[in-house]
Design a protein that fits this description.
With about 180 residues, the chain is α/β, with parallel strands linked by helices. It contains seven helices and five strands. The chain has a single domain (about 1-170), classed as Rossmann fold (3-Layer(aba) Sandwich), CATH 3.40.50. Strands 2-1-3-4-5 form a five-stranded parallel sheet, with helices on both faces. Helix 4 (about 95-105) links the parallel strand 3 (about 85-90) and strand 4 (about 110-115). Helix 1 packs across helix 6 (about 150-170), helix 2 (about 30-35) packs across helix 6 (about 150-170) and helix 3 (about 45-60) packs parallel to helix 6. The relative contact order is 0.18.
Length: about 180
């Protein structure tokens, strides 16, 4: 029984390493600059991609940025000059496409798309496109089902982006701790 668990861990870790090493990082600098320069940063993703997006929004908030997740009841409206980052493996999630369409029709906000599908409808809205090269293998269905490799790679990619932004704006972990939510 634990053999499958171990096999899955090894497969996921090997896949993550391969994806993150092979993915095109050409737009990383532009992505960081776009986020840093935006008055407000909005993140959107559905399902587990949305959970990855929420963790990125939290880290941005801890960096002192005005970051929000689209769809929360306290999220303000996107305005001109803001940045909207979409996380979607397929780039075909209808709610993400609809949100991107609304953003492009109503305001002049920069759109960043993090996806595994550079030719997808959502990618077509991107001002800055970040592609994680996530090949589908036969082992995915039993060891990393339903987009697991993309979601984990997106999480690591966005955490590395936080480190870059931290360095760019001269932020320290100590200052971030002051913005970390404390419930007592």
């Amino acid at each position: 029984m634990t053999a499958k668990f171990s096999e899955s861990i090894e497969y996921i870790c090997d896949s993550l390493s391969s994806v993150l090493k092979s993915s095109n990082r050409v737009n990383v600098r532009e992505t960081a600059n776009t986020i840093i320069e935006a008055p407000q940063i909005f993140i959107y993703g559905a399902g587990r991609s949305g959970l990855v997006g929420r963790t990125f929004a939290m880290r941005l908030m801890q960096l002192g940025q005005r970051a929000f997740f689209i769809g929360e009841t306290i999220t303000p409206a996107v305005k001109d000059g803001d940045c909207v980052l979409f996380v979607s493996k397929t780039g075909e999630t209808q709610t993400a496409i609809q949100a991107a369409r609304i953003v492009t029709e109503r305001v002049k906000a920069k759109i960043i798309v993090l996806t595994a599908s550079p030719d997808s409808p959502l990618a077509g809205f991107a001002d800055v496109l970040m592609v994680l090269d996530v090949p589908r293998t036969e082992k995915d269905s039993s060891l990393a089902p339903l987009g697991t490799v993309f979601e984990n790679a997106a999480m690591v990619f966005l955490d590395a982006l936080i480190a870059l932004i931290m360095d760019d704006i001269g932020e320290s972990e100590e200052n971030m701790m002051d913005r970390h939510p404390i419930l007592v």
